[in-house]
Amino acid sequence: MASFRQVAKRLVLGPPVRSDRMGETLLPKRLALPVFASDPLSSVTYATQEILLILSLGGLAVLHLAPWVGLGVVLLLAVVVASYRQVVHAYPSGGGSYEVAARNLSRNSSLVVAAALMVDYVMTVAVSVAAGVDNLVSAVPALYPSRVWVAVGVVVLLVAVNLRGARESGRAFSVPTYLFVASMGLTVVVGLVQAAVGHPPVAESAGWGIRPEQTDLTGIALLFLLLRAFASGCTALAGVEAISNGVPAFRRPKERNAGRTMLIMGGLAIGLFSGVTALAVVAGVRVAENPCDLIGFPGDCRSSGQRTVIAQLAAAVFGDGGVMFYVVQAAAALILVLAANTAFNGFPMLGSLLAQRRYLPRQLHTRGDRLAHSNGVIVLGVVSAVLIASFGGSVTALIQLYIVGVFASFTLCQLGMVRHWNHELRRGEGDRGRVHRARLINAVGAVLTATVLCVVLATKFTHGAYLVVLAIPLLFLLMRGIHRHYRQVRRELEPESGELPSPSRVHAVVLVSAVHKPTLRALAFARATRPDTLTALTVEVDESDTHLLRSEWERLGIDFPLEVVESPYREITRPLVHRIKELRRSGPRDLVCVYIPNYVVGHWWEGLLHNQSALRLTWRLRFEPGVVVVSVPWQLDSSHRRDVDREHHPPGHVRRGLSR
């Protein structure tokens, strides 16, 4: 009968998938778009809002500059999308920015890109989920006090869905993504048509004033405010590179399908962002970092949040409380939550690639039951949930940590692509005109993204970006350290020329706690190996117990000597280790084999009922050179009953208790 754990696992993950069915998990374009493009599409819901939030620091006088800031973001987005299409076609094996930097720049540059991307993926999950919950709260204000718990619960749900595999998550997320594109596109079109015919939509905040934090902005101060607003609006570029990282997940022809998907994603993101920004200006939307700075804000500004830009636009276009208002809010909340799915696809793939090259633990390279990189999915979920809880689920606080890593990886990737095209030109292969055009696109992208990176660092550093600036070098050093460890281990384990020397003598030691069937089996196994010496060893913790053990030993006529190690302080592990060390010191080339009987039980709680001293001893002896520990199992009846269902369980599900 299947255990509760196995039943629960199958309900969440579904049945395991054979390795030879990997091709069935590949994504067609209609599913790849929601899987990889939900992040840049979802940024439409908060990129415009972030621009208005920063401009509101200067009061109503500078809000009219929002369209120009938005235009700068649109131009940058178009250049970056075009640049990453070059990456997709040049490196269809996946890896994106990391692969480009690894092949064309230095190893250290590639690790900086990898660290920046990992930080970006974590921030994508945290910001997207927090923003999605904010939109949900805009429709259901009663959830405001519980928004952090709601956000953490959403992360757990995303982890569960992604553990089922990329194709399953693509099916689950395709409807919400397309619903958002349709509902948001309808909002923009209807709103702009209303404005064109002379009845522009009016936001609920259009009549409010803003108490500026900075007044009389001119010259350098105004320029700095505009640059800060531009840096915040550049969150619209988050996730653009995800398709280049996940090209192997596409159906064949992979690079062509990935390139077309990126083009569709770029067009949708530019169109929706431009429309939302224009409509927000037309409708007179007012937002502020602190609701108490909004003059005319209804209710208690200290205990209730303000509506998002998307919520205000939906209410202005379709009417507050109407069916379409709730459709738009539901779609916005879902796309923001599902935007985290971009990271849940990109992070595990990047982690797998780094683990394969020994820069991260090897466990991140293995695939789970559903052919997903399960360990990477779980790590991303845990770190993101902790980050959301640490910042109280505040999008305004989390957004300050965002896009530093994005533009660091963008810049190094574009520089790497320029060098890639230079190599192509030197080889003289292919269409030189096409290569020159591709190099120009990537060169312009490198200049623009490097400029934006400097702007982001200058404007966001003191607002929280310094945490990311610290995190990237720490991850870089961690990956270097892991790689150094694996290299050292490989060097130590590399076989030398010639045969390995055999041990001079083999000493077999059987640990005895009682005279029972497991002990007799261990003695029989030890004798079957024909060691040079064989010793049965027990520790005297209680004199009466030892006397009974000797009597039973003699009664059964066991023809092996029983050696008793005294332990005045009632310890077991230390006296045994000391005695085994003495045997080991009898000859530098001697080998000591320690046989430890143990029980095999069928239930986890049975293992808790047996003494754990053998486990501690096994762990301790692992560090002794010239010592081999042999576990001799004895299957109890409960393990035999569990064995009936073996075909329904993965190998290794039987738990072991240790005998005493």
TrEMBL record:
Gene3D superfamilies in UniProt: Amino acid/polyamine transporter I
Sequence ranges of Basic residues compositional bias: 651-660
Question: According to Swiss-Prot or TrEMBL, what is its membrane topology?
Answer: Multi-pass membrane protein
Q: Where is this region: Disordered?
A: 641-660
Is Transmembrane helix one of the keywords? yes
Identify the keywords attached in UniProt to this record, alphabetized.
Membrane, Transmembrane, Transmembrane helix
Major place of localization? Answer: membrane
Q: Which InterPro entries match?
A: AA/rel_permease1, APC_K+_Transporter
Q: Where is the composition biased (Basic and acidic residues)?
A: 641-650
Entry's transmembrane regions:
51-84, 111-132, 144-163, 175-197, 217-240, 261-285, 323-350, 371-391, 397-418, 439-458, 464-482
The family database entries (PANTHER family) matched by this protein are listed as: POTASSIUM TRANSPORTER KIMA (PTHR47704:SF1)
Q: What is this protein called?
A: APC family permease
Species assigned in the record: Saccharopolyspora endophytica
